[in-house]
Amino acid sequence: MNFRALLGVAPLLVVALGGALLMVAEAFSRRRDDDEHGPTGPSSELALATAVTLFVGAIFSAAVWFVGPEKIEGANAVAPYIVVDRFTTFVSFILCLGAGLSALLAGGYLPEHKLDRGEFYPLLTFSTVGAMILASAGDVLSLFIGLETMSLGVYAMTGFRRTSPRSTEAAVKYFLLGSFAAALLLYGAALLYGATGHTDFDGIRQALITPVGKPNRGLTLIAATLVLVGMAFKVSAVPFHMWTPDAYEGAPTPATGYMAVAVKTAAFASLLRVLLGALGHPDLASWGSGWPPVLAFLAVLTMTVANLTAGRQESVKRMLAYSSIAHAGYVLVAVVAMPKAGAESQGAVLFYLLAYTVSTVGAFGALILCGSRGAEAVSYEDLAGLGKRHPAAAAAFSLFLLSLAGVPPTAGFFGKLNVVKAAIGAGHIALTVVLLINSVLAAYYYLRVLVYMYMRDPAPGAPIAKPMRSGYVAGALVLAAIAVIGLGLWPVLPLRVALAAALAAK
Amino acid sequence: MSSYLPLFLLFLIAAVLAVVLFTLATVLGPKNPTPEKLMPFECGGDSEGSRFVRPSVKFYLTAILFVVFDIEVVLMYPWVVSFKSLGWMGFVTMASFVSLLVVALAYVWKKGALEWEK
Amino acid sequence: MSTVPVEYFLIVAAVLFVVGAVGFLLRRNLLVLLMSIELMLNSVNLTLVAYNRLHAANHAGQNLAFFVIAVAAAEAAVGLAIVLAFFRVRKTIHSDEANLLKN
Fold this sequence. Notes:
The complex is a heterotrimer. Chain A is mostly helical. Chain A has 22 helices and no strands.
């Protein structure tokens, strides 16, 4: 047993052990009564500890990156279950960053809205562990374990407001559809195992390529379809998106933010590994007889339906949910371009996930900041005149929305630019045009928030959302804002890192 | 196909026996119904209340904890079977797994989920 | 003694999976939906174990089945807890009445 080998999986171990410690600490800490002590309950310190754990995980990911996973002897001792490469390391970094920021948001939100129970933080941490396993899984076994670890935590966080009919309903819907999708994916994987005799992605691909004892083509197609449907559920691509708006709206906002960034990032990372690994057979990855046209169809459907529906929402939170579906569509465009544009396109996916993570956490954080106990900011009307009442919150919200809309010089702009470049490089002109039209459509509902904040006055007598005060939320917003602007002003270096990460994924 | 024959015979005999016994009991048995005899049998006492008794939620919590911890044992069977070939590495791995379970048990205990009367 | 052909197991598993999936899509009782999901996962296990006989070189199928059993138990625990929370708030376990969140 080589202890250097542990360095490779250090980010995962740090977060997992941190989660276990948090769980014990939460159980053994003395409870303070929520009502007497106001909004500084026992979970405030837990939020900080969780954020620190997750940021340490991010730092370890960065450390593994600088050492170079390929140079660590025995780092892949548990491959293919946990594959340690630059791709894993990069995605782990994004996941820890997004989850850590969500933990900070929770530290402000939960006490403010009388949800001050510490269980949220171990759930968040363990869910992140699952997401990291999912992103580094090179085998169906670890893929399933990671997927379920991640999802079970998120289901519980969705239903965290146990007395609220909406929160429990969201949890029920999310749980049922999520488990159904997982079962479909697993049955597909079982059939794929039957066709090839392997559960690891490399083995599956090679068995599909070798002409000897060629696996049954019909069985393979059914299996691949089931797997792709299961993954489409997880990345919430239309028409498998029904759970998304409900779950996002019903969940406490920090949980929504976490779902929007970490779950989606891990699911896309895993989708990339499955498509390039298990289904990377040239036949299956060709436009004529494989998955790219199917995913292209899904991408067009996802972008268009999500953007058209988002424009009709009256709740800002639900609008952000549809916006996250639309962003899944943009990423799918880059995924479709993968077989032709290669690493450039995978790099675009990874960079987009990073840019999307910081922008989305920021947007949900700003939404949290705009509300306070008993007066959560939900609708557009709630935000009317916010620019005058609370310029800082309004400015932060505007920045993140502009990034989501893809306005330069923000992170979102370069994310989209790279996707467009990859799609054109692969010759998917029609897809690119659809993406651009959709970006214009999306600008409508993002800018509508800005219009309400800066150009409308609240209707007389209408309930106004009072912004809350929280160092945690403010801190998370500052970090996210730095990242959004930083990625927007100096995109070259992060993009090069994303490309290097993309090259590692076969 | 011949290997299924005993199984088939078993099912056949069981079915025939059940039908025969029920028929004989119905045909031969004396019938003298009284209101007491027609009452649902409940260990001699009078039956009370509705047929649907909602079990307490306490059962749910205990049951679900039992299921989770019980199923984890499934992962130990393969380890036991190949105990010798896995050696110390296998032992250490299983020990860390079990210690995680112990942490979970301590958590459940501390949270009071094991208290029957609260 | 002759053995049962692998195909028989696979067909049973496929039937179980379809029963589970159809049950999930048609039934309205949340507990029945949970059971349908469990049925689907169990059919996956049967498929894996049956295929393992064809690919006996490494016991990948058996391996995966063990983990699926363990994870399914955890999933059932969380699912029941969520349904219980739903029942406490809404006094029903009918999925049709989960209709507060709509466009």
